[in-house]
Amino acid sequence: MIRLSRRSVSTLIRSGDRSFRVAAVASSISRSSPSATGVKRSGTESRWYSSSLTNGTQSTRSLAHLNMQTNWFLGHRNESSAAASDSSSQAPPPAEKFEYQAEVSRLMDLIVNSLYSNKEVFLRELISNASDALDKLRYLSVTDSEIAKDTPNLDIRIYADKENGIITLTDSGIGMTRQELVDCLGTIAQSGTAKFMKALKDSKDAGGDSNLIGQFGVGFYSAFLVADRVIVSTKSPKSDKQYVWEGEANSSSFTIQEDTDPQSLIPRGTRITLHLKQDAKHFADPERIQKLVKNYSQFVSFPIYTWQEKGITKEVEVEDDPAETKNDDQDDQTEKKKKTKKVVERYWDWELTNETQPIWLRNPKEVTTAEYNEFYRKAFNEYLDPLASSHFTTEGEVEFRSILYVPPVSPTGKDDIVNQKTKNIRLYVKRVFISDDFDGELFPRYLSFVKGVVDSHDLPLNVSREILQESRIVRIMKKRLMRKAFDMILGISLSENREDYENFWDNFGKHLKLGCIEDRENHKRIAPLLRFFSSQSENDMISLDEYVENMKPEQKAIYYIASDSITSAKNAPFLEKILEKGLEVLYLVEPIDEVAVQSLKAYKDKDFVDISKEDLDLGDKNEEKEAAEKKEFGQTCDWIKKRLGDKVANVQISNRLSSSPCVLVSGKFGWSANMERLMKAQSAGDTTSLEFMKGRRVFEINPDHSIIKNINAAYKSNPNDEDAMKAIDLMYDAALVSSGFTPENPAELGGKIYEMMGIALSAKWSSPEVLPQQQEMAHSHNEDTFEAEVVEPVEVDGKK
Fold it and tell me: Polar residues bias located where (predicted)?
């Protein structure tokens, strides 16, 4: 049902017969129209409107005229009604214009509590408004010096009454007239600063950049976050009178009156008095006010004074205790030394709070290293000097100034590389602190250790100035900040003092490795900064550039091996042939190293190759030798594969071994032994999900080793020999351990080793063992001894 105003209905009734005639003409035209559907719909709509009103025939006819003229309910226009409209000289009823209405108190509550997530920003907003008022006065005083004659000092003063819960903020700015109070404070979201800046742009003689902060017109109302009553006393140089604006948090009205109290008069400017709510009276603490000013408005261009308690140490005389006085024979004229003590005398006075100057606004050529270091220590509460700093100004489609620092140590620990909430980047807009809580808007998390300030005049913010809007400008700023950060880190790596970059790498090396994984676009910037140990440099880390310079002419790839320590890496059997050839191998001993290098894939057109995986090409293939070895040991490989079964995917002749009989390598696209170990450690005891992720294992044998030659002879003589089968099993288990894998049954492996040791060490250092049956026979023989009978020789035929 459509609800019409009384005025609209009366207009339709007054149109009377004329509307009816138009409707009749339209009906005749519609009946002659070939579209029967349109006629049916038009009649139905006319009856619908007729049933909606009870004002008689004329109103029904008027609605029919309205119906025929335009189908505004269903959103389409009939041809018949168009013809009727054209044939009629009567214009349609004029549309009425209405203003949106709102419950002001409710709207105020929504604005204040929805825009600002943190109550303490009220002071930042009020100080920003005061700074704008001072900026306006300074700009206008250039052409009219009489404006600033009453109060030449331009400053902001904040007084906190803790006992009564009152905060008073006074500025000596431009002030407001009575009409400006009504326009600026009486109209929500109307910014006096925005109007002033528009006037500057429209003015032909407007020169210089404006540092005005406000732009939305709602900053003043943030006072109601903490106050239930706000009083504004203001005096403009344009008026001889001072006016007082007063409003309450839950009220839809405000009052303005002339201030006639001589004690409250001010020469020029604005004084805002906040009567705090019961749950916000803790903001009236002078120390809390000072802390908020230093946090949010430290770099406002005008001095900010806060009312603080101070102390001065004095020496006062101490009266002698009569009981301790002694009578002596000394001359009364002798001067005695007076006793004193130190006391602290307390008093209240104004204290300058924003002493630190924004050095990023100065020319970098005029700032010394000592000044950069001092600013770093004060701004970020550090006690050590930074490793490097970068001061730059970006111009073009995005304009901002910034100073970036590389800290000397990691405050969260060397192993913490995923902490995104570091609060290391402080964002300012026209020197007013906005936020330091970012989640990747300006820096990725792997560069979260970089500290600094970013100050922009045209950064796109929402009304609360706390949340960055997702925009193209922010993305451009992020790219330029990252580029400067990489240049700064590269400068440390190229420094003559090698210890500086060693210190940096010790603290933040893992961050850059994380960048290899997460930021593929910046691989070319990250890769030159990486450092690794190698087979030719076990004590000092080398860069990838140094590795490439040391490569052999015939070397086509960058070789690496991943392990848990340098000791295990350099003793791995995979390196035997490579080290004999004099090739260098990188040792990846950190858990993140292998993933980082695999993400890089290549450096300066040299692919990274894991020497613990199959199909290793060292560039020395000898087809004739390979054919001969395959002919000699091919069937032996098949025999070993049959014995090992599913434990290995294949058994083949190795080209990487020289002193070891065998080795177990990973598939080309599977996990290495080191990666498999790391994945098991992260699976929280559930290894079932890792079974399908394991890569294929290839068992490689060294045909030149004596053990393999004996195994080959055993196959040719007796393939079913049980000792040969046990030797194959033990050889596989030994290769499993030496290649970095974890045996599935360590106890079984230990039993095999003990058995082989028993065979090898049998009767080597001790006498042969006597069997128990032999011991019993010897014992019984000793018990049944008989005495020997001596028989004398007998002579027979003269002979003995």
Answer: 45-55
